[in-house]
Amino acid sequence: MKPVGPLMREHRLIERMIRKMGLQLDEMNRLGSLDVNFVNVAVDFIRVYADRCHHGKEEDILFRDLASKPISPEHKRIMEELLEEHKYARSVVGRLDQAKEQYAQGRLDAMAEAAACIRELVEFYLVHILKEDKQFFFPCMEYFSREEQDGMLQEFWEFDRRLIHEKYSSVVEQATGDI
C-alpha cells in the first residue's frame, strides 16, 4: 500500500462530515437556530481528525520528507498553498468555536457568524481535498522509492497510535484539573 491510501481514506471521512455540516447549515437556516451540540462535535472532529491527525501527517511526515527531495516548482508551490490552507482552516474553526460559545451564552446574533464559518469550511474542504487528491498526493509519490514509501506508511501508523493517547490524555487533564 502506498502512503496515500490512509490519506485518501481520511479524505473520504472528512468529506462525509463536511456534507453533514452542509446539511446542518441548511437546517440552521430553516429553523433559525444553532445546534450547539452538533457544532461541538464538528469543531472537535475538524480540530482532532482533520487537522491534528490528517493535516498533521501531511505536515509532519509527507511535507517534511518532500522538503528533502528535488521536487518540481509546481509541487513546491502546491505544498506551500496547502500549508497556508491548513492555517486558514484552523482560523475558521477557531471563529466557529467562538461564535458557538457566544451563541450558547445568549448572543443569538452570533448564529450568523457560525453559519458563515460553516459555509466557509464546507466550501474550503471540498476544494482543498480535490487539490490534494488530483494535483498533489499521487504525483508526489513518484519522488519516493518503495522503501521510503513503506517507511512513511509506518510513520503514519505510529502517528495515529500516538494521537489517540495525546487526545485522551488531554481530555483527562481537562476533566481532572489538579488531581
3D architecture notes:
The structure is a single chain. With 179 residues, this protein is mainly alpha-helical. The protein has one domain: nmb1532 protein domain like (Four Helix Bundle (Hemerythrin (Met), subunit A)). The protein is built from five helices and no strands. The termini are far apart. The mean pLDDT is 93.
Please name the defining characteristics of this protein.
globular; 0% strand; mainly alpha; single chain; Four Helix Bundle (Hemerythrin (Met), subunit A); 179 residues
Report the biggest beta sheet as strand number plus sense, adding barrel if it closes.
none
**What structural class do you assign from the helix and strand content?**
mainly alpha
In the CATH scheme, what's the topology name? Answer: Four Helix Bundle (Hemerythrin (Met), subunit A)
Radius of gyration: 18 Å
User: How many structural domains?
Assistant: 1
Report mean pLDDT, rounded to a whole number: 93
Q: Tell me the overall shape.
A: globular
SSE order in H/E notation?
Answer: HHHHH
Q: In the CATH hierarchy, what is the superfamily? A: nmb1532 protein domain like
Number of helices: 5
Total beta strand runs: 0
In short:
Helices cover 86% and strands 0% of the residues. The protein has five helices and no strands.
